[in-house]
Amino acid sequence: MAARRLSSLLSRALSSGSSSKLLSQGRSVSRFSTTAAASEELITPPVHVEYTKLLINGQFVDSASGKTFPTYDPRTGEVIAHVAEGDAEDINRAVAAARKAFDEGPWPKMSAYERSRILLRFADLVEKHSEELAALETWNNGKPFQQAAHAELPMVVRLLRYYAGWADKIHGLTVPADGPYHVQTLHEPIGVAGQIIPWNFPLLMFVWKVGPALACGNTIVLKSAEQTPLTALYVAKLLQEAGLPPGVLNLISGYGPTAGAALASHMDVDKVAFTGSTDTGKIILELAAKSNLKPVTLELGGKSPFIICEDADIDHAVELAHFALFFNQGQCCCAGSRTFVHERVYDEFLEKAKARALKRTVGDPFKKGIEQGPQIDSEQFQKVLRYIKSGIESNATLECGGEQFGSKGYFIQPTVFSNVQDDMLIAQDEIFGPVQSILKFKELDEVVRRANSTRYGLAAGVFTRNIDTANTLTRALKAGTVWVNCFDVFDAAIPFGGYKMSGIGREKGIYSLHNYLQVKAVVTPLKNPAWL
């Protein structure tokens, strides 16, 4: 499958949301009608919750404490189901199962080809159940069903098949040495991998972590996000059905300070991989260091610049910048959340960006044509509204949005700020919501300096027709990914990760395999060698 922009797989609804003009801080601000959201009847999700227990050693079991916690429908704030709440004792049980499966079980001793076949069977099962998985993802996360079904599930399947293809192609080297020695390197599985995934892309993050770890022959204890535990439990069952031996994958649902901390600090876990916020990533790194100094990979936050040069096709740039920020309700670590626009095209871009935001369709994510569903939960909802308030109080110009959409659930109006300055919180912090901040620049050197003046370095976007400008910016921007005249192009083979405080290491592609392998050098003397 060729690399693809996520937006090319989504059905775009261009129907215009109604708006009215209200006075705010002395200027006219476009607002969204809340009538439709308040009165619309929500679609009943076409799926049932089947799995709510912990997966330990091949069995779905209750937590050791017997506790459960509620998981919610962000469209309404109502409880979907109660899920087993794992804590330190459950992590101990899961790690023991993973350790036994690695030290004594068939998985690391199985031929790489057979491991590949299990992963391929798993991919087939995910593909077979993709409609149910997409519905469950939308129900528990709030993302549009069309996005989950037609963009994310095909990517999940592709990633699994990609890593299945790598399983029997992992090998070491023969190394020439000075002297009569035969030297070879072995690439060995690292052992028990602890993995902690976020709530914004639950299924994709599951396979980003599980795929390379299993292809390399490791065993896993994975903690799902407490906000979105349901799809991980479903696909874990499918992986068992595909023939994965007991104890190779253990899945714990629970909270970060209890289950997550216990996993990161466990003395019998050989490696930790985490995707989430930068602040939590620091805690994970500290816990890993203070325990057994286990290696850590981190995919963390971002405040990605999206740079629109003076020669840009403005209509195309507006649509791309809109997608770069508002995709997935703005809950994307690489969102183009600082839109830098050249002063010569700033006014035209601003008016068209505002108009595009006003056309964005918000509502029940199960309905066809909906582009934006609710934020994940009340905490994130309130956080985004606080940042919007901060933008207003900092004298950025609120062009549209800025309020709750409807009267139920965690929906927020697509929001656009202009006249944003670099020292404002909305230009510095990762908002993780549908808030576009538009900034003005004059010179390339200036925008490079401003774009790089952040603690993050996950991604960047460049929009220009000039190849020299593109080359200058791609080399100057301190980011792990730079998209030129595109955005959010994800492919199984393209590495993803950040500079600076956006993380350590890379996900996807051949680079992700390095996270789950150790290199051993083996040196053997040669007696009377015919050649060296």
**What's the β-strand tally?**
24
Strand content: 15-25%
SS-based class? alpha/beta
> Mean pLDDT, nearest integer?
93
- How large, in whole angstroms, is the Cα Rg? 24 Å
Please list the strands of the largest sheet in the order they lie side by side.
17-18-19-16-15-20-21
Helix content: 25-40%
Q: Indicate the overall shape.
A: globular
Count up the helices. 16
* N-to-C span: 43 Å
The largest pleated sheet is described as: 7 strands, mixed
**Which blocks of ≥5 consecutive residues have pLDDT under 50?**
1-5, 9-28, 33-39
Keywords:
532 residues, alpha/beta, 7-stranded mixed β-sheet, 6-stranded mixed β-sheet, 16 helices, 24 strands, 22% strand, globular
What can you see in these coordinates?
The protein has 532 residues and is an alpha/beta fold. The chain has helices at residues 35-39, 88-103, 112-128, 130-141, 145-166, 202-215, 230-241, 256-264, 278-290, 314-326, 346-359, 378-393, 425-428, 444-452, 467-476, 509-514; strands spanning 4-5, 19-24, 27-32, 54-56, 59-61, 68-73, 78-84, 174-175, 181-189, 192-196, 219-224, 249-253, 271-275, 296-299, 305-308, 338-342, 397-400, 415-418, 435-441, 459-463, 481-484, 489-490, 503-504, 517-525. It has a seven-stranded mixed sheet with strand order 17-18-19-16-15-20-21, with helices on both faces. Helix 9 links the parallel strand 13 (271-275) and strand 14. The chain is globular.
Quick structural gist:
The protein is built from 16 helices and 24 strands. The protein is α/β, with parallel strands linked by helices and 532 residues long. Helix 2 (88-103) runs parallel beside helix 8 (256-264) and helix 3 crosses helix 7 (230-241).
